[in-house]
């Protein structure tokens, strides 16, 4: 048993933390989100220069060979800074699909450009009329290598130079395809998410696509596990930031002639938040450490972590707002934005109920 | 013991229902159902419809347009409004300043202000809270200094709801900085928002709406005739204003309406496959749990209504803790309903369409992008009106003697 970080991992944390502190202060973030497209393009290049974009890719493919722990470290710091860049979708989710599903040629054509920041992928799998959390393609169909259908809630979909799209094949199974967003027949409508992310609706009409071999649903499920482990870490960072702001506020805000931290009701609430945060941190570690475990264990552990963290996120987010009073619901103050991101994390890739169902079907956690 | 409404009360309920079915405009009903913003025009139009029916200020004294309803009728009226998806009553005029002017105002003030307050020809906003004075309202610092026939007001209010539309503000101001207790140096002033020296600055909230404001007063001259009651007695009038709403703060009708809505929406989503059977079954269970809690709250509310009807005799209606119980538990359930709305929306609720480039949702889906902003903004109900922490303090201290 060893919960400590290696020197390289500590260095990674310092690097990311410094980057977030220097370049991603709350005011910088607000300014960037007011730019066209809601982003400062320079940030992505800086992430490339720092080597962050190659983190999860194999060294043989031109990446830096990081594992679950490295992604956890990075995502926690991104969570603290409420980083809105599409790292989760373009690097973690799409990266997992490239690693696990794409052919060597398909990877060779992409990974290096991803690492340098020249290629951003987005993954389009949810459909407007389907069940909310399925990985099966239903109404997007592939006829040969040509796709027709509609995808929703595509994270970073309007910021991508290439899409990975799921579609139902003539055999009735789900397969994954690369699609050029500039190709004839593709239209993309991007919108801001309430948390500052970008989400897109993608419609495809008889669009040329390049097939990724294998069982698309299985590949998606596994990539979503990687994304959920990353989200757990991001939630921990966001919750830690919420708790820091709240404790600071309790000490400085005065009512009835004393700092409101003097009121025991509020002290207890803050302690409850801290307890939730620490338990969540433990579960985020479990999720990260489970990524390279055998399938059944990995799936169960990550479901448990996400279920737990979704609930913790809700509690910590709501209480952080409550303890701030009116200030907590203003757009000019960071805590409300943390609450919104924690809300999105709760629902992305399966809410608590969804994962509890999944774990029930699996028969629970291994003893 | 009899928990049913009597025949007169039921007849009254039918009358209200018929009126709402005939008179509530579709666009307003839809906006309320979808939890999208009402425009000023919609609020004014609906208030006008109620006013013409004589139902804009039913709880006021008869001489000022009130209906002399029993507490049960008032309760039924409010519940039916909510269930029909009518807008909330315009509380600043109807529940707050109107009753204060009627009770403590001079005859001249009543004559001048009550008719346009009832008709919403004057739109009022509430200027109590300040940056340094929220829960501890009595510490407020905005000053009013007597100068001839005027008061000169300086200072700042914050969180002033819909001040951007307001014609007048009723404000608490400090007139005696040396009073023995801070509560004893506060006065209650009516201030015309067009007076020179007033600046309204918007505060954008996390749902991206503009509902609250900062209001700055820079040497604002207010005629002394706009003082309510006596100088330095404003705290008493404010307490009257804040305490006079025992029936209604729990907003039970609103939560009932949300329950109905959630059931219907979940059914549709299960039917068209957006929700699995398992998700649907779980949601129904959660709705039942909420419904049970709501029933307990409703009966508690009705005990209060009955106690008020009996004029204090019989069941004390949950006693002195009643308002706090209703406020805390009512806000809990309202917030729980917004969480259920979020569960219904799922990840598809993440996208916030750019309202300026109006996206053409299917009509049944307009609620979808509104679910998250509504969830976010409804965190306010446990903060304002005496936060839920403050309510518990009040019960512990003044009711239980702890
Ligand atoms: C959307 C919205 C609309 C509003 N509209 C209006 C309006 O129209 N007019 C107006 O005058 N005001 C309005 N308010 C202000 C509202 O009344 C105040 O926000 C409220 O009184 C709380 O004050 P505060 O925000 O300064 O929080 P604070 O009083 O600073 O409280 C911060 C936290 O400390 C807790 N706390 C404070 N004291 C204690 C204690 N003794 N024991 C335990 N916990 C404590 C609070 O519960 C809260 O959680 C509005 C507020 C909101 C959010």
TrEMBL record, chain A:
<dbReference type="GO" id="GO:0050660">
    <property type="term" value="F:flavin adenine dinucleotide binding"/>
</dbReference>
<dbReference type="InterPro" id="IPR009100">
    <property type="entry name" value="AcylCoA_DH/oxidase_NM_dom_sf"/>
</dbReference>
<keyword id="KW-0560">Oxidoreductase</keyword>
<dbReference type="GO" id="GO:0003995">
    <property type="term" value="F:acyl-CoA dehydrogenase activity"/>
</dbReference>
<dbReference type="Pfam" id="PF02771">
    <property type="entry name" value="Acyl-CoA_dh_N"/>
</dbReference>
<dbReference type="InterPro" id="IPR013786">
    <property type="entry name" value="AcylCoA_DH/ox_N"/>
</dbReference>
<dbReference type="InterPro" id="IPR046373">
    <property type="entry name" value="Acyl-CoA_Oxase/DH_mid-dom_sf"/>
</dbReference>
<protein>
    <submittedName>
        <fullName>Alkylation response protein AidB-like acyl-CoA dehydrogenase</fullName>
    </submittedName>
</protein>
<dbReference type="Pfam" id="PF00441">
    <property type="entry name" value="Acyl-CoA_dh_1"/>
</dbReference>
<feature type="domain" description="Acyl-CoA dehydrogenase/oxidase N-terminal">
    <location>
        <begin position="6"/>
        <end position="118"/>
    </location>
</feature>
<feature type="domain" description="Acyl-CoA dehydrogenase/oxidase C-terminal">
    <location>
        <begin position="215"/>
        <end position="357"/>
    </location>
</feature>
<dbReference type="InterPro" id="IPR036250">
    <property type="entry name" value="AcylCo_DH-like_C"/>
</dbReference>
<dbReference type="InterPro" id="IPR009075">
    <property type="entry name" value="AcylCo_DH/oxidase_C"/>
</dbReference>
<comment type="similarity">
    <text>Belongs to the acyl-CoA dehydrogenase family.</text>
</comment>
<keyword id="KW-0285">Flavoprotein</keyword>
<keyword id="KW-0274">FAD</keyword>
<dbReference type="InterPro" id="IPR037069">
    <property type="entry name" value="AcylCoA_DH/ox_N_sf"/>
</dbReference>
Automatic annotation (TrEMBL), chain B:
<feature type="domain" description="Acyl-CoA dehydrogenase/oxidase C-terminal">
    <location>
        <begin position="232"/>
        <end position="399"/>
    </location>
</feature>
<dbReference type="GO" id="GO:0005886">
    <property type="term" value="C:plasma membrane"/>
</dbReference>
<dbReference type="InterPro" id="IPR009075">
    <property type="entry name" value="AcylCo_DH/oxidase_C"/>
</dbReference>
<keyword id="KW-0560">Oxidoreductase</keyword>
<dbReference type="InterPro" id="IPR037069">
    <property type="entry name" value="AcylCoA_DH/ox_N_sf"/>
</dbReference>
<dbReference type="GO" id="GO:0016627">
    <property type="term" value="F:oxidoreductase activity, acting on the CH-CH group of donors"/>
</dbReference>
<dbReference type="InterPro" id="IPR006091">
    <property type="entry name" value="Acyl-CoA_Oxase/DH_mid-dom"/>
</dbReference>
<dbReference type="InterPro" id="IPR009100">
    <property type="entry name" value="AcylCoA_DH/oxidase_NM_dom_sf"/>
</dbReference>
<dbReference type="Pfam" id="PF02770">
    <property type="entry name" value="Acyl-CoA_dh_M"/>
</dbReference>
<keyword id="KW-0285">Flavoprotein</keyword>
<dbReference type="Pfam" id="PF00441">
    <property type="entry name" value="Acyl-CoA_dh_1"/>
</dbReference>
<feature type="domain" description="Acyl-CoA oxidase/dehydrogenase middle">
    <location>
        <begin position="125"/>
        <end position="220"/>
    </location>
</feature>
<comment type="similarity">
    <text>Belongs to the acyl-CoA dehydrogenase family.</text>
</comment>
<feature type="domain" description="Acyl-CoA dehydrogenase/oxidase N-terminal">
    <location>
        <begin position="8"/>
        <end position="119"/>
    </location>
</feature>
<dbReference type="GO" id="GO:0050660">
    <property type="term" value="F:flavin adenine dinucleotide binding"/>
</dbReference>
<protein>
    <submittedName>
        <fullName>Alkylation response protein AidB-like acyl-CoA dehydrogenase</fullName>
    </submittedName>
</protein>
<dbReference type="InterPro" id="IPR052161">
    <property type="entry name" value="Mycobact_Acyl-CoA_DH"/>
</dbReference>
<dbReference type="InterPro" id="IPR046373">
    <property type="entry name" value="Acyl-CoA_Oxase/DH_mid-dom_sf"/>
</dbReference>
<dbReference type="Pfam" id="PF02771">
    <property type="entry name" value="Acyl-CoA_dh_N"/>
</dbReference>
<dbReference type="InterPro" id="IPR036250">
    <property type="entry name" value="AcylCo_DH-like_C"/>
</dbReference>
<keyword id="KW-0274">FAD</keyword>
<dbReference type="InterPro" id="IPR013786">
    <property type="entry name" value="AcylCoA_DH/ox_N"/>
</dbReference>
């Amino acid at each position: 048993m060893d919960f400590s970080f290696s020197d390289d991992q500590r260095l990674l944390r310092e690097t990311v933390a410094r980057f977030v502190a220097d370049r991603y202060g709350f005011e910088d973030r607000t300014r960037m989100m007011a730019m066209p497209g809601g982003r400062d393009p320079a940030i992505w290049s800086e992430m490339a220069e720092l080597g962050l974009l190659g983190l999860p890719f194999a060294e043989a493919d031109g990446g830096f060979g990081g594992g679950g722990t490295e992604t956890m470290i990075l995502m926690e710091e991104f969570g603290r800074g409420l980083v809105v860049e599409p790292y989760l979708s373009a690097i973690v989710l799409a990266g997992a699909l490239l690693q696990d599903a794409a052919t060597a040629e398909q990877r060779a054509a992409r990974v290096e450009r991803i690492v340098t920041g020249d290629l951003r992928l987005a993954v389009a799998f949810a459909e407007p009329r389907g069940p909310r959390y399925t990985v099966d393609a239903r109404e997007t169909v592939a006829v040969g290598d040509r796709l027709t259908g509609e995808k929703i809630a595509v994270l970073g979909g309007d910021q991508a130079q290439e899409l990975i799209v799921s579609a139902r094949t003539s055999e009735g199974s789900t397969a994954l395809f690369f699609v050029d967003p500039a190709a004839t027949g593709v239209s993309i409508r991007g919108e801001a998410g309430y948390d500052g992310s970008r989400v897109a609706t993608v419609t495809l009409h008889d669009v040329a696509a390049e097939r990724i071999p294998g069982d698309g649903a299985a590949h998606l499920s596994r990539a979503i596990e990687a994304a959920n482990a990353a989200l757990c870490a991001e939630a921990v960072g966001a919750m830690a930031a919420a708790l820091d702001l709240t404790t600071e506020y309790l000490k400085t805000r005065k009512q009835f002639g004393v700092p409101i931290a003097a009121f025991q009701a509020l002290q207890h609430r803050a302690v409850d938040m801290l307890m939730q945060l620490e338990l969540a941190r433990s579960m985020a570690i479990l999720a990260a450490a489970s990524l390279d475990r055998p399938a059944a264990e990995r799936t169960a552990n990550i479901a448990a972590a996400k279920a737990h963290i979704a609930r913790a996120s809700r509690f910590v987010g709501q209480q952080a707002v409550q303890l701030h009073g009116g200030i907590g619901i203003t757009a000019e103050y960071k805590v409300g934005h943390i609450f919104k991101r924690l809300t999105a994390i709760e629902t992305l890739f399966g809410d608590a109920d969804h994962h509890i169902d999944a774990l029930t079907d699996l028969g629970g956690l291994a003893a | 013991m009899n928990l049913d409404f009597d025949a007169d009360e039921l007849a009254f309920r039918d009358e209200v229902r018929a009126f709402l079915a005939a008179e509530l405009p579709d666009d307003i009903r839809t906006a309320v159902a979808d939890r999208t913003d009402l425009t000023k025009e919609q609020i004014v139009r609906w208030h006008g419809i109620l006013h013409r029916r004589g139902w804009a200020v039913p709880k006021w004294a008869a001489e000022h347009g009130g209906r002399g309803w029993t507490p049960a009728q008032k309760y039924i009226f409010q519940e039916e409004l909510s269930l029909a998806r009518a807008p909330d009553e315009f509380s600043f005029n109807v529940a707050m300043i109107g009753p204060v002017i009627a009770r403590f105002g001079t005859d001249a003030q009543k004559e001048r202000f009550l008719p346009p307050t009832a008709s919403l020809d004057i739109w009022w906003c509430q200027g109590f809270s300040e940056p340094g004075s929220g829960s501890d309202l009595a510490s407020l610092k905005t000053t009013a200094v007597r100068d001839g026939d005027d008061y000169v007001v300086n200072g700042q209010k914050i969180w002033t709801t819909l001040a951007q539309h307001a014609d007048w503000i009723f404000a608490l101001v400090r007139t005696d900085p040396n009073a023995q207790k801070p509560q004893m140096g506060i006065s209650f002033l009516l201030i015309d928002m067009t007076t020179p020296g007033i600046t309204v600055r918007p505060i954008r909230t996390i749902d991206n709406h503009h509902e609250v404001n900062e209001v700055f007063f820079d040497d604002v001259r207010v005629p002394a005739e706009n003082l309510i009651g006596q100088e330095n007695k404003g705290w008493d009038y404010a307490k009257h204003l804040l305490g006079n709403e025992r029936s209604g703060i729990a907003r039970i009708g609103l939560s009932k309406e949300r329950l109905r809505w959630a059931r219907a929406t979940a059914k549709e989503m299960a039917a068209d496959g957006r929700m699995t059977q398992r998700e649907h079954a779980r949601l129904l269970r959660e709705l039942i749990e909420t419904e049970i809690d709501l029933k307990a709250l409703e009966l508690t509310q009705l005990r209060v209504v009955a106690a008020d009807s009996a004029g204090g005799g019989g069941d004390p209606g949950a006693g002195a803790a009643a308002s706090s119980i209703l406020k805390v538990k009512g806000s809990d359930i309202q917030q729980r309903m917004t969480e259920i709305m979020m569960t219904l929306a799922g990840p598809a609720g993440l996208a916030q369409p750019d309202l300026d480039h109006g996206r053409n949702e299917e009509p049944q889906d307009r609620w979808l992008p509104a679910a998250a902003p509504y969830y976010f903004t409804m965190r306010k109900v446990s903060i304002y009106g005496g936060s839920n922490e403050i309510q518990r303090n009040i019960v512990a201290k003044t009711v239980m003697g702890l």
